[in-house]
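Dear colleague,

Thank you for sharing your sequence with our group. We've completed the structure prediction you requested, and as agreed, I am returning the results in plain text so they can be pasted directly into your records. Please verify that the sequence below matches your submission; if there's any discrepancy, let me know and we will rerun it promptly.
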Amino acid sequence: TRGRPMSVAVILCGGLGTRLRGVLDGRPKCLAPVAGRTYLDFLTDYLHKQGIGHFVFATGYRHAQVEDWLKTSSRPWTWKTSLEPEPLGTGGALRLAAQMIPEEKFLAFNGDTFLEVSCTDLISCHNALRSPLTLAAVQVPDTAAFGGIKVEHGHMVEFHEKGLAGPGLINGGAYVIDKAFALSWPSGPLSLERDILTRVGLAPAAHVTSGRFLDIGTPENLALAGEMAVALN
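Please find the predicted structure tokens below.
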């Protein structure tokens, strides 16, 4: 049925949270406090409402705390964890997690950013453009902190490193990825952003959304995440 086109998502949980050290109190960034709970509570609630019934948590830094969080209460979804044996970067972590997924394609989300996006629309874009990887792009007032992207005819054709100021589109940290494509990436540490998305000849599909975007990596933005969690609940 519409609204439940794909039921599995990988969440990248390996972020160190260096800018949030004083707030995190020794926790990984994905477990940052949001509206009396954790960021992972907020994100998984949001995605579960869209029909995601199974999560693979790609863990690394302080992975035992993520597993403890998973076991603290009953969840309305099933889960597995994919523990990287060494820091593998976003691409390496996704390649490792893809081995645990039976489906031919899967959704993936950053565990330290929030994007208001329709999973159905993201998947429809992926299927229509027949790309091995589709990302969600979102307009922000200033791309300097993120790195801007250029989208033409439904595909990302350029990526600019952080520092270029001004309004524009950025990578919103939500993806649909063909499992076979992820498994074809070279083993070892790998950056999804620098090593895969900008690969010559790829031009990943890009679904442009007008939803809200938030990077929870600063104390100020983490406070905003609490307000957003209340608003979206």
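Summary note from our side: The longest strand covers residues 168-178.

Kind regards,
the structure core
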